Structure formats: structure tokens, C-alpha cells
Predict the 3D structure of the following.
Amino acid sequence: MINLQSDHVKKRIFSGIQPTGNLHLGNYLGAIKNWVNLQNHISSIFSIVDLHAITVPQEPLKLKSSTHEVTAAIIASGIDINKSILFNQSSVKEHSELAWILNCVCRIGWLNRMTQFKEKAGKHKENATVGLYGYPVLMASDILLYKSTHVPVGDDQKQHIELVRDIASSFNNMFTPQNEPDFFTLPEPQIIGEATRVMSLRDGTKKMSKSDPSDASRVNLTDTKEEISNKIKKAKTDPFPLPDTLDELKNRPEAYNLLSIYSSLSDQTLEKALTEFSGKGFSHFKPKLIELAVETLNPISCEMRNLLKNTNEIDKILKDGELKAREIAEPVLKDVKKLVGFVN
Ligand code: TYM
């Protein structure tokens, strides 16, 4: 009989965001906006995943300032540190330790299926770091270290969460003692809302991304009113008025993308947003979208600038989050080590 100490929680969410470059509307609508709602209902943990960031080269000073910026953006968007735990991943060493153990559970064949690695490594696979290849195992560690049950993310992370379930299930089969409940609950992805995959403003078939060389392809959370307005004005469209049905809309990637953004920002279904604009041209629709985007994002960027005036305070917030996160993580990792058979 192994004496385990970590609790089985009913519901807990974990999610993370990389401190690389500017956060954009995709990060906000696909992830952070949902986190802000969920924190009122479920025990919530959010992390600035700096260990993930270094899977591709980072400039040390830039990594530090990006960590501050992303923390400020998350708080400015409405994450309340009295309700949620917010910390940077590298400050809780248990993430790396559990990741190693899970590396010894995850199979190479499973990682070989990951489309995001293929996209990120591109043609130069042999040159990619081992860290980039093993990236989803570190994600598994992030999620399982807190025995999280739900993971709110954008659509692009779905495959990674499926892998996390495979890893958790394999760990359970290998190590849960007979007649005991499974050690890890299999976490479920929560892909919520009308903008789960926000696309580039320049090409409605490409994901909006921090790494797109064209800044005009995305609306950043730090953009000024003028920048937001110019980018949406110049966003690629087609020459037709907005259609009457969702089926027609889905065949028009740019129109679909802009309307999804509108419906997510205005908290209404895509269908409802479509009834507001069907038959109208983009010259009518775009100013409404600009107004809504500015109204939502401008207070966030103002608050971000305010918070960034005092990075010591941001460091304190992260330190506090680290202590709270470790309280949960330590007993889970201790149990994992016992189950694996380590003597310590
Ligand atoms: P990252 O930093 O690329 O993105 C952070 C969150 O933003 C979502 N997202 C989008 N949603 C909609 N449309 C888009 N164009 C768009 N671009 C990004 C992402 O889906 C994500 O939810 N691997 C993760 C970070 C991570 C993590 C975790 C997430 C590390 N450990 C554990 C959940 C649980 C990533 O690179 O996200």
C-alpha cells in the first residue's frame, strides 16, 4: 500500500501562454477572455510558460521583459490574482522534474504525429532543439502537476491536449496501484466561444500568430486606437456583401474570420452577428468592428502600460503565485515519485 498525499480535485483548470512577442487578438479571444470567465467558477491556475519559450532561441533580456509584459496583459485583461494563481513556469521546478518522468512514459511515435512540431521545425527538422520536439511532454507536466481536469485553450492546442490524455492514461496503467482509482484524471480541452481559431488579417486561411513577419496580420493587445483601426481597415476581404447563411459564410475565409471576431467580442453567437450584417457590405461592417475592438482592447493596453511602470510589483505577484502553485505541485510530484519507485 502506497500512502499518497495529493488530493483528488473535483475540477481545476490549468492553462499557459508563452512570453514570446506581443500577445494578439487570437490569444485574447481564444484563451485569456475565457480564463477570465472561468476563474469565477473553477479553481484556476495560469502560467507564463517561459520554459516553453526557450524551445526556440530567445534573447535573455527580451525574455525577461516579455514575461513582465505577458503577466501585465493577463492581469489587465481581468485575471484576478485573488481568485486565480498566476506564476511563471520556471519558478516552480516541479514542472521540469515531472516532465522528465513523463518523457519516460511518452512514446516517440506519439510525438512524431504532432503537427505543430512539423510546422515549427519546418524543413530544418535536424536543427530543431530536443526541447521543441519534447515540448508537448512539458505541457503534459504543466497540466498533470496540478491534477487539472480542464484545459481552456485555442483550437491549435487540441492535438497537444489529446497527447496529454494519452500520457496520463499510460502513466495510470503503468503506475496506479491495483484496486486504487486512477492517479491522474484525463484532462479535457475546453475550446470555447466563437473565435477559437482567429486567422490572419492578411490571409483568412492562415492562423493569426506572433511569429508572422507581417505586423499587419494581427491586432496586438498593445496596439493604439489608430493601429487597430488601420489594420482592420486594411484587412483582406472579398468583394461581396455579407451572406444570409452560415454555410455561405464558411466558404469565405476572410468574412468568416472577421465576423467570428465580431461575435466573440460582442459575446453573441455567430448566427446572431450574421443576422445583424447579412446583405451589408464591408464598408458598413468594418467601422462597427473597429469600434468594438478599440472599446475592448484600449482599456487593456492602458492598464498594461500602467502595470508595467512598476515591474517590482509584477515580480511580487509572480512570487506569490509561485508559492501558491508549489503548495499544490509538491505533494503531487512526491506521490508520482513514490509510485515510480524512487527512494526519497
Ligand atoms: P501560445 O502561447 O501559442 O498561445 C496561448 C493561447 O492562445 C491561443 N491562441 C489562439 N487562439 C485562437 N486563435 C489564434 N490565432 C490563437 N493563437 C494562439 C492558444 O491556443 C493558447 O491557448 N503550448 C501553449 C502554451 C502552454 C499550455 C500549457 C497551454 C504550455 N503549457 C498547458 C495549456 C496548458 C502555447 O504555445 O500557447
